[in-house]
Amino acid sequence: IEQGDVPCEEARHVLSTFFETFRPKDRTRAGAAPHVTGDWYCSDTPGRNGVVCHNSERGAGAKQFLGAWPADQKQRGCPDVGFKPNSGDGAFEIVSSGVPCEEVEYLLREVHAGGGFTARFSVGDFDCRRTQTTSGSLPERRYRCTADHGAFTFTRA
């Protein structure tokens, strides 16, 4: 925590409350509107694995601090998952938030075995949606999968 002139205990309490109410799947909406925790407004800082919080005071009473996401909710890259050796058939550019990479791989293999990378599908307790399609010599489809305990994105080629 980089709390500036905010007492450390107060900053910890605000962050603790924020992390209890703001789930990893909500990170996709971060920045759209700050999340309120008491008199504090907190929002995600995408790509930086952090949170910025500021109070509702203006002028001389205004305070702000930065906090880090808990380790289990930080975004991390996962290894590519190949479905057919030397074919380009796989899931790539995998980024996970709150979901172990091993679980992501297992879920992706389960979907592939079931034949279903459709526009929208479910696997385990994740709801997955296609978010982007690109055409070209190798068409790609981008997906986002979310559940209460985490989220991950990937590109399917």
Structure description:
By secondary structure, the chain is of the alpha+beta class. The chain has two helices and eleven strands; from the N terminus they run H-E-E-E-E-E-E-E-H-E-E-E-E. The strands form two sheets. Strands 5, 6, 7, 8, 9, 10 and 11 form a seven-stranded antiparallel beta sheet that branches. A four-stranded antiparallel beta sheet has the order 1-2-3-4. Strand 6 and strand 7 form a beta hairpin. The radius of gyration is 19 Å and the shape is elongated. About 5% of the residues have low confidence.
The description of the largest β-sheet is: 7 strands, antiparallel
Work out the number of β strands.
11
Q: Helical region count?
A: 2
What is the rounded distance between the termini? 40 Å
- Helix and strand content put the structural class at alpha+beta
Q: Judging from the principal axes of the Cα atoms, what is the shape?
A: elongated
User: Mean of the pLDDT scores?
Assistant: 79
Q: Name the beta content range.
A: 35-45%
Order of helices and strands: HEEEEEEEHEEEE
Rg, rounded, reads: 19 Å
Uncertain parts: 27-33
Binned, the helix content reads: 10-25%
